[in-house]
Write a structure and sequence with these properties.
The complex is a heterodimer. By secondary structure, chain A is α/β, with parallel strands linked by helices. A two-stranded antiparallel ribbon of chain B has the order 1-2. The chains are: A alpha/beta, B mainly alpha. At the A-B interface, α1, α10, α11 and β20 of A face α1, α10, α11 and α18 of B.
Chain lengths: 526, 407
């Protein structure tokens, strides 16, 4: 269908116009007459907080949602996009945040998914392979067509997604939060790819909430807030200005924190080994010590055992070997109830799944794991539950109309504040927070980070798991880089980003530092 | 993540029909939907009535010559039937107390199903649990003699509840420890309970001496619920109301109820918060079973409706109380007050249905049909809203979403 249609990209460039796009869900206006143009040969960044309406807009553009008002047009021709197939036919391609690939299929098979070449029902896999080679040569996106997708690193899987869009000859490419799952090196590579595609005359729409990436790659910047375009900016805008535009007020992007005053060792992990339900070792003889009054950040690409480490500490995953000692008490095989009683505060990675009961009120969620202290002889003390809620809502600035509002209806940032408010409202020995600010808006991040630092200063041991290097760098007193269930190395927070990046791919610190040093001098020579 | 879709994504995995504490507007819509469901169910019932009556249907053959004939006959039929239904359920003091008598076991078993729902469990096994309750309620009822009623009845009820609880706990245990789905397990346990009843009724434990058919001795007077003279209002109805209050207190005011609700709505978060999901599952099923067992005991300890004499355990004594309980719990939205109201409604349909069948010669299953239709319509609010476009425009809950987005 589309193997030989690449010349289309060189046709006269026409701007894709979104004009007055409005989309309502009930009385919520997700997009409020948004107008923007995707110009061939330029990278257009769509910047906005979670919930600002970026994804809605792109889903409309890709035919997944229908706009209530407004038009999409190319060179004066109005497009009626009712499904992704029509969007693709119009030259619009999307690289999804969550890859739409079938893991057990090969790259070639995935490439032709949905438009299988062949005759009389026989799949032409050679044709598919040839297509992959052609495209990967052309864009220097090196991929083995016969590799199974599930065996590929995430960065390469994303290349397959990009190639899929290119195979369809997309002239307007949407990248929906593409960097969330990548290592810093992979992000750099992606930027190169985006620039190549741009220089070839394609229009790129890059959706993100990460300011650094925007500044690095954008030609045009549109900022949306609460469904409206609130401003346009040029790439020379400062990160602070962009953040202010995005949030609607001045934001402090750095965390104010004093140097740590180290207390005694509180958490000691020795040969800590965790297996998942399938019996695979996911945390592998891990050794780590966290003292009171310090923040240790576990950095690493998602899926290297960080989540399992956190859950095993809580007690929802089985520890098969080694020990965890918390304040001298062996907590290795304790169930969550006991570890919580032993002074563990836990902020789960997926707060909607594990952090709260969405249909419960704020007040109820704030006592979810400590009903015993809010009851007498098995009966809930509603008065104290209510006053506790009032205090926490005040203290943590949870934006809500009432404490009986279900937590489900709060914004991501406020939901996370509920979780953190609950965990920090009792004396802790250890706080384990997994992705404490994922999906949280910039304004709330500032608040949450400050609260975590405050907890550290109470001599609590803090263990943060984060895949966001910005977060790791701004919070950590020490960084432990995790790769395939092991700690590659524990380094200082001022370790250069590219060294951390190499460590996140499993390279030990000395080697990583040397190789970065080497490439720097090479660059200097050139 | 496409945060706009978060609302949908957060739906709990368990399909328990427990609405979140809804805002006032949504509650209003849900009330209207329920009322419209009643109307629709009775309209459908009327159509069935007409179609099922050959005499009335015959008049439709010459509808275009004399439409008055057919319409008049239909109207007569429907009005006779429904006025009989009304009279039989709420038409007199006797009828009202009859309704309460029919409602009592429905409320108890309905509470059992509702409580399990709140824990995220679909307890299809109320029937089996009620059968065990009936077996041991009756057994205590006729084997122990010479006790005053205020001791005899509590003992009988207690033992019935213990065995109902055990039967429920089996399903809870299998679910918690092996992951066996409670729907399958409770259905199978229903069969086992029924066949155990059948078997036990042929053993000396239960079978009345000298009888060869499966029937037990007559329950002692001292184990039979006292009845208000001249009415059919028994102690059983007050026990059912007390059970509803107790379940409400348990769910809303105790730590155990807090855990049950948390596990039901989000077992992952409950486990992360240190609650034992498996223990809560077992305990919830045990309490659910005890409530169903209470319903079963009521069936054997309530005096026969017409004569007021004690009854005896037979194969069909609990009827379909365990299955009706599911519809009661569904209609009552798994809330104790809702269950009481739904139980009273279905009790009224049962009480009035007898009168209706007798006076208007309607099919005997008509009330069951109407019950089923009510639940069907209530369970499919989208269909009802589609029929009544005025309600649809309001988009319940949209204002909440907006508030959340701006918070």
């Amino acid at each position: 269908m589309s193997t030989a249609t690449h010349e289309v990209a060189s046709q006269a460039p026409e701007v894709l116009h979104l004009d007055g796009i409005t989309k309502r869900f009930g009385s919520l206006t997700a997009n409020d007459s948004i107008t923007l143009g995707l110009v061939p040969g330029r990278i257009h960044c769509l910047l906005g907080e979670n919930g600002a309406g970026k994804s809605t807009l792109m889903n409309i553009l890709f035919g997944l949602l229908r706009a209530d008002e407004g038009t999409i047009s190319v060179g004066g021709n109005v497009l009626h996009l009712e499904n992704p197939k029509q969007a693709m036919a119009a030259g619009i391609g999307m690289v999804h945040q969550h890859f739409m690939l079938i893991p057990v299929f090969t790259v070639a098979e995935n490439m032709v998914l949905g438009r299988e070449p062949g005759r009389f029902g026989k799949l032409d896999l050679n044709g598919a392979r040839k297509l992959v080679r052609q495209l990967s040569d052309r864009y220097r996106l090196d991929v083995d067509p016969d590799a199974l997708v599930e065996d590929l690193p995430v960065g390469i899987q994303q290349r397959v997604e990009i190639l899929k869009a290119l195979a369809n000859d997309a002239r307007y490419l949407i990248f929906d939060e593409p960097t969330a799952v990548l290592t810093p090196q992979e992000i750099d590579e992606l930027m190169v790819v985006m620039r190549t595609l741009r220089d070839e005359g394609r229009a790129i729409c890059f959706i993100t909430h990460k300011l650094r990436e925007v500044v690095a790659v954008a030609d045009d910047i549109t900022v949306i807030r609460r469904g409206k375009v609130v401003g346009e900016a040029t790439p020379d805008a400062s990160e602070g200005d962009l953040a202010e535009l995005m949030v609607g007020r001045a934001v402090n992007l750095t965390v104010d924190k004093a140097p740590p005053t180290l207390g005694k060792e509180r958490l000691v992990l020795t040969d800590f080994t965790v297996a998942n339900a399938a019996g695979t070792i996911v945390v592998d003889h891990l050794n780590l010590t966290v003292s009171g009054g310090e923040i240790v950040c576990i950095a690493g690409v998602q899926g290297n055992g960080q989540t399992e480490l956190a859950e095993a500490l809580l007690g929802t995953m089985a520890v098969i070997h080694g020990t965890a000692i918390l304040d001298g008490v062996d907590v290795t095989h304790m169930p969550p109830k006991k570890t919580i009683e032993a002074g563990l505060g836990f902020v789960p990675e997926d707060r909607q799944r594990d952090g709260f009961v969405g249909d419960f009120s704020i007040a109820e969620n704030l006592v979810l794991n400590r009903t015993t202290s809010f009851s007498s002889v098995g009966n809930l003390d509603l008065g104290r539950i209510r006053s506790n809620a009032d205090e926490r809502i005040e203290e943590f600035d949870i934006r809500t109309s009432s404490q009986s509002q279900p937590v489900r209806s709060l914004s991501g940032g406020n939901q996370q504040k509920v979780v953190l408010a609950r965990e920090l409202s009792r004396p802790l020995s250890l706080l384990v927070a997994n992705q404490p600010t994922r999906g949280v808006d910039v304004g709330a991040i500032e608040f949450l980070h400050n609260r975590i630092v405050k907890e550290r200063d109470r001599d609590t041991a803090v263990l943060i798991v984060s895949t966001e290097l910005e977060e790791v760098e701004s919070l950590a007193d020490r960084i432990a880089v995790m790769y395939r269930g092991r700690i590659v190395g524990v380094v200082e927070p001022d370790t250069p980003r590219d060294v951390l990046g190499l460590m996140m791919a499993g390279v030990p610190f000395e080697e990583a530092a040397r190789s970065v040093e080497k490439s720097r001098t090479e660059h200097a020579d050139v | 993540m496409s945060e706009e879709l978060v609302e949908e994504k957060m739906m709990p995995a368990t399909p328990a029909p427990v609405p979140a504490r809804a805002p006032a507007s949504r509650r209003w819509v849900s009330l209207v939907v329920t009322l419209i469901s009643f109307v629709l169910a009775f309209v459908t019932g009327a159509i069935v009535m007409v179609v099922a009556d050959p005499e009335v249907l015959g008049k439709f053959a010459y509808f275009f010559n004399a439409p008055g004939d057919a319409l008049g006959a239909s109207w007569d039929k429907i009005s006779t039937a429904y006025s009989a239904l009304l009279r039989g359920s709420v038409g007199s003091w006797l009828a009202i107390t009859e309704t309460t008598a029919q409602a009592a076991p429905l409320i108890c078993a309905g509470l059992g199903v509702a409580l399990a729902f709140r824990a995220g469990l679909f307890n299809i096994g109320a029937q089996g649990q009620a059968i065990w309750g009936a077996i041991f309620g009756a057994w205590i009822g006729f084997t122990i003699k010479g006790l005053p009623w205020f001791i005899h009845i509590p003992i009988a009820l207690a033992l019935a509840m213990v065995f109902g609880a055990l039967w429920g706990a089996i399903a809870g245990f299998l679910k918690a420890k092996t992951g066996a789905h409670e729907v399958i397990v409770t259905i199978m346990l229903n069969y086992i309970a029924l066949y155990m009843l059948q078997f036990l009724l042929t053993t000396p434990m239960l079978q009345q001496p000298g009888r060869s058919d499966p029937i037990s001795s007559v329950v002692e007077f001292s184990a039979t619920m006292p009845r208000l003279a001249g009415t059919r209002l028994t102690l059983g109805f007050f026990i059912a109301l007390a059970a509803a209050v107790a379940v409400w207190w348990l769910l809303e005011r105790t730590t155990l109820g807090f855990r049950i609700r948390a596990v039901g709505l989000n077992p992952h978060a409950a486990a992360t918060a240190g609650m034992s999901v498996s223990r809560t599952t077992i305990v919830a099923m045990a309490i659910a079973g005890s409530l169903a067992g209470l319903a079963g005991a009521q069936a054997v300890l309530t005096p026969t409706l017409l004569t007021g004499f004690p009854t005896q355990l037979s194969l069909g004594i609990v009827g379909t109380v365990g299955f009706d309980a599911i519809t009661v719990a569904l209609l009552g939205r798994s809330r104790p007050l809702g269950v009481v109201l739904a139980g009273l409604l279905f009790g009224a349909l049962k009480a009035g249905g007898l009168t209706m069948a007798a006076e208007a010669q309607t099919p005997s299953d008509l009330t069951n049909l109407i019950q089923a239709l009510i639940v069907l319509f209530v369970a499919a609010p989208a269909f009802v809203l589609w029929l009544v476009p005025g309600l649809r425009e309001k988009r319940p809950g949209a204002d909440i979403t907006a508030k959340a987005a701006t918070a």
